[in-house]
Amino acid sequence: MTTEISRKSFEEAKKYIPGGVNSPARAFLAVKDTPRFIESAKEQYIYDVDGNQYTDYVGSWGPMILGNNHPIILDAVKSKLEKGLSFGAATQIEVEMAKLIQEMVPSMEMLRMVTSGTEATMSALRVARGYTGREKIIKFEGCYHGHNDALLVKAGSGLIADGCTTPDSAGVTVGTTKDTLLACYNDFASVEKVFQENKGEIAALIVEPIPANMGVVLPQAGFLENLRKICTENGTVLIFDEVISGFRVSTGGAQKLFGIQPDLSTFGKIIGGGMPAACYGGKREIMECVAPVGKVYQAGTLAGNPIAMAAGIAQLTYLRDHPEVYEHINAMSERLFNGIEAILKSQKVNFTTNHIGSIGSLFFTDQKVIDFETAKTSDIDLFSQYFKHMISKNNYIAPAQFEALFISYAHTEKDIDKTLADIAEFFGA
User: Fold this and answer.
1) CATH number of the domain residue 112 falls in
2) Active-site residue list
3) For residue range 256-309, what is the model confidence (pLDDT) as tens digits?
4) What share of the chain is helix, strand, coil (3-state, %, to 5)?
């Protein structure tokens, strides 16, 4: 495999773009490698500028649940292009999108479109503060909710993948994070302690119901139910950040899968079908605090972009009308992770796997990964070696131990079995 053009492109990019990339997750720093510059994608494959074909297990970090460049999404986008790329004005297609999301996620009684998950979580927290008249919020160690200043506290994702000892970002002031309170995921006692120490002061508790930014971590029995209960008891807004889990684990997200209704939710990635789109929403009485109806200001010039709405509606409608998508991606995920476990159990390797539906992670640790601290016990040097082997065998996985692996509707048993053979080769199985 040659990567010469990617290497040259990266060197040139570093002259004009910080680190040569427009998102740190693309930099390959955690695996001490050079990022591949991607030229095209189709179905379960992506192609780099050197002409290499990879089986894609990143899927643009989640949105490509149907596979890359799915024809129904391409057709939907093409049908809108000639009518205009952006208007900065109200459109009927925004209403169509809102109705579709509300139909699929009943807790979204009212919602507002934005262009990124970061915008969605930032806005949801502002609304929660405006609604409750309180200032403090709770987040969980290792949960990533975008690069909002107030949330860059033990935020997981690239902040641990790059080996930072303190995951807070430079440029974030103490004043910005002073009202951000930390709890430990899957440790309800830590949540109770924070509430006891801040009675009547907590506006919101924000959580990834299925964390996927310290690697995929699964909620233990009763944990999410207890979060719902304690928020209700304290008049605190419960926010589910479903930017990753939304429409990934079911047509109604993690909240449908677990049968828990939050007060507000954020969605992104899949709802744009590959285009920049996200939203936040929930209870009508809370969302009516948002301008121009209420006093909580939030705006976006490109929010509800008609091209993004067309792509998102096409993808969500397909997911709603084709339950076989979830049957297939879940089966492929089971095949992959069961295969990984069978291979590694025969070797002297410390490992654990977490997966749910079509997302999962392989951790190189002998501990069960249930939170931020146990995730950090992973052997990142071994992961780096593993990554380099896998990409050399044309498997495109996330270039960091603490990210998720995504299965799409386009993946086949043949793809999975080839990937398993490559894993077996690395471990000498």
Assistant:
1) 3.40.640.10
2) 144, 241, 269
3) 999 999 999 999 999 999 999 999 999 999 999 999 999 999 999 999 999 999
4) 40, 15, 40
